Every structure is written in structure tokens, then in C-alpha cells.
Amino acid sequence: MSDTFTSRWGMLLAMLGMAVGTGNIWRFPRIAASNGGGSFLVAWVVFLLLWSVPLLVLEFAMGKGTRYGPVGAFVKTLGPRFGWMGAWVAWCATAIMFYYSVVMGWTVRYFWASVTGEIPTAEPGAFWQGFAASPQALLTHVISVALGVFVVARGVRGIETAARILIPSLFVLVLVLAIRAVTLPGAASGLAFLFTPHLSELANYRVWLEALTQNAWDTGAGWGLALTYAVYMRTREDTALNAFVLGFGNNSVSLLAGIMVLCTVFSIMPDAAGQIVGAGNEGLTFIWVPQLFARVPAGRFLMVLFFLALIFAAWTSLISMIELAARVLVDCGVARGRAIAIVGACGLVCGVPSALNVTFFQNQDFVWGVGLMLSGLLFAVAVLRYGVSEWRERFVDTEESDLRVGRWWDWAMRLVVVEAIVLIAWWLWQVRGHGLSEMLNPFRAFSVGTVLVQWAIVLVALMLLNRWMVTRLRAEERPGAPEGHMPPSIP
Q1: 388-404, pLDDT tens digit by residue?
Q2: 3-state helix, strand, coil in the chain (%, to 5)
Q3: In a domain, 163, yes or no
């Protein structure tokens, strides 16, 4: 392919941009603090190796091997009857894109508010209450979609160029903030909490499930994003080594964010630590972070850096979601420019409800966040049905591989099936409510009913559209695609 990343460095930066998002910076510190700190880290590293890396290896191999986005990749792997599985993966990432642009818009507004001195306010949360679900939030949503489309419209080279600028800048910003945090008086308490595991807490099943969830949500594994970028890998690029670098690089940002937030909390507001980490993602970031930085020397400058880092993290992730959706349309024969325009227009329109209604935003975040676990399950099922050892030997442990993964990966993929089922069941159990009517109510923001109804609508629609999608896939064979698995309609 002529449209490829120019170097491994450029590709890895783009991949890191895809993986590193707001979840690394605002969710990880909160979840780590709520689940024992150092004890959580132990479980978190375990599932990095048992969920994130195995799925990233699979996505790298599938994207590079088929040279198609999610729909075409599943068709070429399993046959024409299974295009709907790839479409589900693509839909989940696209549905998240619809409200992720809203999140990026929040970071843009808070960056500007930190520059102008509008935050922090005398009353914690006052600025957030006036901004969330307002016309300003709609405006920043539009700005975010425009910024994402601007980069993707410039092709793979545009994505790579943006990553070369934004990702090193993001790492520098987070590193500077982490270094400043550890130099605060009393920061040692935060470090001790974050890095001291207690074996008794590892007996708590919730710590392990939260660690697995964090890996599912902050590495991008199983989202189809790594698969999409892998379409543009150079032929001799290694899959396994890149997957390990991506997994550990992504989690390094999470760890720095944890140091930054927890050291600051333990130093500045130790008495409010429980209230802060229990405030939820939006509460921690948009209510308490400005209050924390207000009490730190040069806090306003550091707060500007913090929200700038959040913009970079959100922007690079949004770019990858737009590219994934556009890739699916391109695979179906739509011209790239038109595909990007369609995705951008849909992103603008479909993001409006989340921009103007926080409850709707939270509902979509929950429904499709859990949907990602089903995406991971489908990836694992696909490679198991193909033949996990055959897949590994043919597409992962190849002659040009710098790192061979070996048979442990085969067992890890089987374990992913179990992990995904357990995670889906656990998250649905947590929102079961009181009584059958409350559990199945599809109009509650968090319920089993709202998940199952929305999932069912999408799955039925994708299955009905399966034949149409398969026949629309581009006819020409891609270099490096596996032989013998293409449907008759695609030569």
C-alpha cells in the first residue's frame, strides 16, 4: 500500500494517540484510589498481560493481515456470514465517538477557563454546573468534531504528523505535572498509597474486576482502533513487539496521571481525599482538579498544562475513532473524502443530545462502554473459530517478527472469552436495580433494560445489513490478505 505510516516511530506515536485518552488521566487515578492503590496496580498489570496485550496483538495482526477495517477484517477471517461482528466493533467505537467529542469539548472549555482565570470558582462545581449541557457545551462539541475531521481529512500522513506533535507534548506535560506533584509537601503519602500493595486487599474480587475493566477501557484493546491503524502498517512491521510497546506505553501515561493526581490530593487536601476520588470522572476532573491546583504554588500555570494535556489526549483518541468509521465506509466503496464528510456530519448531529443532556451522555457512556467488552469477546471468538494456533503461526509469529509470542497467547485468547463474559455480567449486575420492572426499564440511565434494548436494536440492524455490507466491500484484493476466506462476492 502506498498509504502507510512512514516509520515505526510514527506508527507507534499514532497508536499511542489512539490508546491514550481522557480515561488514562481522569479515570485511572480515581479507580486506583478507590480500589486500594498499590493492590489495584498488581491486578492492573496482570490484566495488561491477560487482556490488553493479547487483544492488541490480535488487532495488529488482523489489520495488517487483511488490510481491511473491522467489517472486512472479520469477513476475510471468518467468511461472509460474520461481517456483522466487525460491524458491531465499528459501531461501538463510532457510538463512543458521538459523545467523546463532547468530552473533548469540555477539556477545550476548561483549558480556556484556566487561561482566563474563570476557574476555580469560590464554590466547587459552580463553573461546571453553569457550563455542562449549555449552548457553550454544544459549541465546543462542534469545535472538537471539526478539529478531528481536520486531521483525518489529511490522510495517514496527517494522522502521523499530528501524533508526532501531540503525543510527545502530552508525555512532557504529564511528566512535568507528575514531577511537580511528587515535590509537594506530603506527596510521599500519595506515593506510598499508590505503590504499596496489601495482600489482604487482593482477596477482594472487586479489585480484580475494576483492574480488568480499566484495561478494557483505557488501552483501546478490542475497540477496533488498533486494527484500523494496523491497516497502514508497513509490510515488515512486527505485530507482537508493537503491541507490547503500545500496551506498556499507554499504561505508563496512566501511572504518571495517578502520581500527579494522588500526590496532589494527599498533599493539598488529604481530609477530602475520599470525597474527591469518589466524585466520578467528571467530578474529579471538572470540579476538584481546579480546586486542587488553586492551592498549589504556580497552580494556575499547572492547571493550564493539565487541561492542555487533556485536550491532546482527547484529540488523538477522537482522530482514531473518526478514522475507524471512515475506514469502514471506504472499504464499502465510498470515496475517502466523502466518507470523512459523512462521519463528520453524523458526529456533529449525533453528539448533540450528549452535549445538551448530561444524563443522556452518561447513558451512552455506560451502554457502549459495556458494549466494548462484547467487542473484545467477538475478537477472541473470531480467532478461536479460525484456529488460534494457526492464526498465531500465520500472522503473528512470522519470519520477520522481532518478538514471538508463543503458545501463552493461545491460552490468553481463550481466557479473554471468559474475562469478557464475566465483565459483561458484572456490569449488568451492578445496575440491576430493585425489582424486575426497574431492572428492565429501558428508559433508566443505568439499567439492564437500557443496555439490552439498545444492543438488540443495533445487533438486529447489523445482522439484517450483513449481506449488503459484504457485497459492498471493495472488490480488489489487498496485499498481505489471508487467502481462502473471502466470500464469493469479493474476488
Answers
A1: 999 999 888 877 777 88
A2: 75, 0, 25
A3: yes
